[in-house]
């Protein structure tokens, strides 16, 4: 997993899973705490995430809310969009451009 960017926009690539969760959490929390306004998280280079990785995203979302900020997901890959819809998290998280539920392939 790699994360690059600043306190306004971060790009996440590779795998966001149990192995990388602690490092990702540290970087995301620092970005939330040290910035202002929306924090955009570009996931277009993300290969996969597991439940732990999704938990890191949700933790950053809650922390951003407590800091008066909003976490916005950009470039969510289709397989991860399906997971967000299946868990109904697409209704809670801010997703740039939204998710076209009707256009996702049925599983």
Question: Main attributes?
Answer:
107 residues, alpha/beta, 5 strands, 36% helix, five-stranded mixed β-sheet
Q: Care to describe what's here?
A:
The chain is α/β, with parallel strands linked by helices. It is 36% helix and 27% strand. The chain contains three helices and five strands, in the order E-E-H-E-H-E-H-E. The protein has a five-stranded mixed β-sheet, with helices on one face. Helix 1 runs parallel beside helix 2. The protein starts with a strand and ends in a 12-residue tail after the last strand. The mean pLDDT is 90.
What series of H and E elements makes up the topology?
EEHEHEHE
Instruction: Let me know the number of strands.
Output: 5
Q: Given the structure, what is the number of helices?
A: 3
Radius of gyration (CA) equals 13 Å
The structural class is: alpha/beta
Mean pLDDT: 90
- Assembly state: single chain
Percent of residues in β-strands: 25-35%
- Strand arrangement across the biggest beta sheet: 1-2-3-4-5
The proportion of residues forming helix, as a percent range, comes to 25-40%
Task: Show the helix and strand layout.
Elements: E1 2-5, E2 9-16, H1 21-34, E3 39-49, H2 51-66, E4 71-74, H3 78-86, E5 94-95
Parallel strand pairs: 2-3, 3-4, 4-5
Antiparallel strand pairs: 1-2
